[in-house]
Design goal:
It is a single chain. The longest helix is centred in the first third of the chain and has 24 residues, at 2-25. Strands 2-3-4-5-6-7-8-9-10-11-12-13-14-15-16-19 form a 16-stranded antiparallel beta barrel. Strands 17-18 form a two-stranded antiparallel sheet. It is mainly beta. Helix content is 9%, strand content 49%. The chain has helices spanning 2-25, 120-125, 174-177, and strands at 33-36, 59-73, 93-106, 110-118, 133-143, 146-154, 182-193, 196-203, 217-224, 230-239, 252-263, 266-277, 291-302, 308-318, 334-346, 349-360, 365-367, 370-372, 374-385. The relative contact order is 0.13. It contains three helices and 19 strands.
Amino acid sequence: MISVCKYTTLILFVFFASTSIAQQDSIKKKLISIQLKNDSNVLFQNKKLALDEKLSEPKLEIGAYLSTYYAYYKEDKLVGYVKHATMAARNNQFGLNMVMISLSYKSKKIRSNVALHYGDIAESTWPSKFNMIQEANAGVELIKNLWLDAGVFRSHIGLESTQPRENITSSMTLANVYEPYFFSGAKLTYLLTPKLSVQLNSFNSFSSIIETNKNKLIGSSIVFAPNDNLSMTYNFITGDDTADSINLKHQRFYHNFYLTYQKNKISMGAEFNYGIEEYRKRINQADVSSAFMNSSLIIFKHQTFKKIGFYTRGEWFSDEDEILSSGSNMGKYTWGATFGIEYKPLKNLALSIEGRQLNSEKENFLYNGKYQKERSEFIFCLDVWF
């Protein structure tokens, strides 16, 4: 709790100090507009195109978010987290997914985002040294529509977000569980048109804020939004996280494509991933050729009533050589199906109940003292934000 207060105080000091300086340096001496982040439609928010917002004055957005849950898994109760832990990660317990505070500053030439989070998502997925920092980055417009941002970022890889409110479901597919949750580095983003943006990026590593060797992870992104309803994104990243002391390197190439569609009562998304890692094949120990993996998901939601919606999701994950899912022992494949209901009585409050079934080629879920090929899940989730 002391650490939370310390980080909160530091963020408030930095932001209000920086905005005060920005005001003093402004020729027109305009006041900063302070707003609460209370958007009623946060679905896929982190995956949408960053449009060239025309600001008449600098803007500071302040937000808070709480996600809590109860989950039951057909898996032996563990002291810590269940297998494939991200959201609703404790078995047969009430838990805290996340409590988060955030600040976002935007002006014509400068932007910055800082978010602190605490809970099971932060503890189970973020590195211990930085697990309270969800994101902390700043950007400057170098020339018109060309932005340079640097710091710690939430991952742009994958359709599903680490904030449950930005997803249709209360759980995360295996495809997104084994993708990066965060990056530390720099991004160069150019908005070609209001419908198309391209990005080049360089990060420390695939799944670590601190650099693990002398290599860097590099990548690119293309986001195309032909209209207000449809958005398509292609991400590519490549890098080598092999320790410097090891001679045989393992260059990884990861392709990620997803699309979102929202119109009237329908929300849907789809994702496909394909990965290659050199000299990683494990099935035949004498074989030092490249290993391959693929994963996909499709999700659909229908807002049947004003305050009640129904959703379903299908998923596929194949990583036999465990390029990303080291130690999981799932075999050639795992597939899953999810069904749920969401009740949203207020614009900034949502309750959901969902069931999920996972089935793998190999026995890897421990239940009643025996390993099983399948796991059933039940999750109740309550989210509120402002």
